[in-house]
Amino acid sequence: MTRLNEKQLNELKFMLMDELFNEIDDANEKNRLQEFLCRTCSKEFCDKRCAKYFVNPDKKILVIGEMRIGKHEMLKIAKDYCIGENQIEIVNKYKELSRFDFDNLINSKKYSDIIFAAVPHKTKGTNGSSGIIAHILNNQNCYPNMIIARAGGQIKLTANSFSRALQSTVLYQNLCM
Question: For the whole model, what pTM was predicted?
């Protein structure tokens, strides 16, 4: 295609805007606006600019991996960030972790965020990746927002790393700020 002159470029922009507005209206009418935006826009745009319109307060944060703190302490910390115990689901037993099917998180309507602690490399749903964290990093647009809990430069869930991770969740940023 050759370069357009200013008039042609402006005409094309207006035609595209008109078409885009119609598609946005149609997606909204069919309750599929979030899906449309995620398909059309970058993940960063959806996460940073659009997320506040779509976070369902009934969604949960999935905390998964080996933890250096107990469930009671985690829930107490979460409460400090206005996140209730019914909004957090914890999977931390090795047997559960190795059997957890991460494919169930694809396009999840249940979870807004996943906080990862240390997890086994061999899990269901890695689809050839070196591990589930690498797999989700390579397919971020299909999964809930992912936060990796780090302490001392390692993937580790401690009280401090859990607090920092909670502050990075979409749920916290949209419901509590």
Answer: 0.68
